[in-house]
């Protein structure tokens, strides 16, 4: 079966398309998420717009995928829809994500403290681990400084 962008990769069960209109995150589109009581995952099929001049998935794409997955893991664990700024994000690039491959960022561990959340996980593809990541996120007591209506309503799936 052929997926979006003419790739042969299939979107795994339980993933839904991430809404558009989320600012920079839209550069990953088409991007998918799966959020449940058992975990948080994001994924995409590597398309031409995700590749660097060497024809492999750009590190910036992997970093953005890791950032939204890790932040969503913290937000989900703390009962927030969105709005946890990244304080630190670290990635170790292990192998290449190639054109047409399904890459999946899985949050494996989350720890939420009073004002901070910590999250770690892996981005994997057909050949195994592509990158590992960990992030630290600030959990403000206020609504934040949104410049437009908060997107929180559309970020978490309906219960």
Provide the spatial order of strands within the biggest beta sheet: 1-2-3-5-6-7-4
- H/E series, N to C? EEEHEEEEH
The fraction of residues assigned to DSSP E strands is 25-35%
* Rg: 15 Å
Shape: globular
For the record, the CATH architecture stands as: Roll
Q: Average pLDDT, to the nearest integer?
A: 87
Q: Which parts are unreliable, with pLDDT below 50 for 5 consecutive residues or more?
A: 1-6
- Name of the top-level CATH class: Alpha Beta
Straight-line N-to-C gap: 30 Å
Q: According to CATH, what is the topology? A: Thiol Ester Dehydrase, Chain A
- Give the strand tally: 7
CATH superfamily: Hotdog Thioesterase
Binned, the helix content reads 10-25%
Structure write-up:
The chain is α+β, with helices and mostly antiparallel strands and 159 residues long. The longest helix has 20 residues, at 59-78. The protein starts with 15 loop residues before the first strand and ends with a helix. Strands 1-2-3-5-6-7-4 form a 7-stranded antiparallel beta sheet, covered by helices on one side. It has helices at 59-78, 152-155; strands at residues 16-17, 31-36, 39-45, 86-93, 102-112, 116-125, 128-138. The protein is 15% helix and 35% strand.
Question: Topology of this protein?
Answer:
Elements: E1 16-17, E2 31-36, E3 39-45, H1 59-78, E4 86-93, E5 102-112, E6 116-125, E7 128-138, H2 152-155
Antiparallel strand pairs: 1-2, 2-3, 3-5, 4-7, 5-6, 6-7
């Amino acid at each position: 079966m052929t997926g979006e962008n003419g790739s042969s990769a299939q979107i795994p069960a339980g993933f839904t398309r991430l809404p558009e209109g989320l600012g920079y995150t839209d550069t990953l589109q088409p991007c998918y998420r799966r959020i449940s009581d058992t975990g948080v995952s994001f994924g995409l099929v590597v398309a031409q717009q995700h590749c660097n001049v060497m024809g492999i998935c750009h590190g910036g794409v992997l970093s953005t995928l890791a950032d939204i997955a890790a932040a969503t893991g913290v937000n989900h664990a703390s009962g927030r829809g969105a709005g946890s700024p990244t304080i630190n994000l670290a990635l170790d690039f292990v192998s290449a994500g190639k054109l047409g491959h399904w890459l999946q960022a899985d949050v494996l561990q989350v720890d939420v403290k009073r004002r901070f959340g910590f999250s770690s996980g892996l981005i994997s593809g057909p050949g195994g681990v592509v990158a590992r990541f960990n992030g630290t996120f600030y959990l403000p007591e206020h609504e934040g400084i949104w410049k437009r209506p908060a997107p929180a309503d559309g970020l978490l799936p309906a219960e």
